[in-house]
Amino acid sequence: MSYTPVEIRHVKLRRGLFGYRRSQVDQLLEEVTESFETVWRERADSTDRVEHLESELTRYRDLESLLRTTLVSAERAAHELKDQAKREAATIVSEAQAEARTITRKARSEHETLATEARRLRLLLHAALDALDEADDQADQRAKSVGPQTPTRETKAA
Question: Which residues contact 85 (CB under 8 A, 6 or more apart)?
Fold first, then answer.
């Protein structure tokens, strides 16, 4: 049985011939001693529990700090990777645009070359046709000046 301080103060011991009765005093002292030991043990257990909880609290605070640091680092790394990806994408796009411009320039140059070559060939063809027409005209004029001829084998085969 444990006593509270108020209960101990209100204990009334009976008096005997030469003072308080020894058996009652001894019994009260024994009960107070047991109560005190119980409270002392509970206090020690509570102190141990508080120390344990404080060490866990410190560990959790350290863990929280580590997690915060890790989260900040991860966010920073994610932003850096995102920025790097944007820069790489911009570089790839600009390289592609430059290559497209080069290909377009080459295609235009080749088109101009082909157009020039086609014009040259047309002129040669027209000149050849004009020469053939002149040759036909000259042949016709010679034929008119010489008179009718008998057909040869070459003209019959044609």
Answer: none
The DSSP call for residue 85 is: H
pTM over 0.90: no
Q: What is the pLDDT of residues 134-157, one digit of tens each?
A: 888 888 888 888 766 555 555 555
Cα(25)–Cα(34) distance, integer angstroms: 14
Is 60 exceeded by the pLDDT of residue 46?
yes
pLDDT of residue 24: 82
* Distances in whole angstroms, Cα of residue 114 to Cα of each of 26, 66, 103, 104, 109: 129, 70, 16, 15, 9
The CA distance from 106 to 110, in Å, is 6
**Are the C-beta atoms of 58 and 52 separated by less than 8 Å?**
no
Are 14 and 20 in contact by the 8 Å Cβ rule? The answer is: yes
Average pLDDT over residues 7-32: 77
CA distance linking residue 32 with residue 27, whole number of Å: 9
Q: Which two tokens stand for residue 134?
A: 């002149």
Check the CA dihedral 65-71-76-81 and report its sign.
positive
Q: State the residue for tokens 């209960």.
A: 7
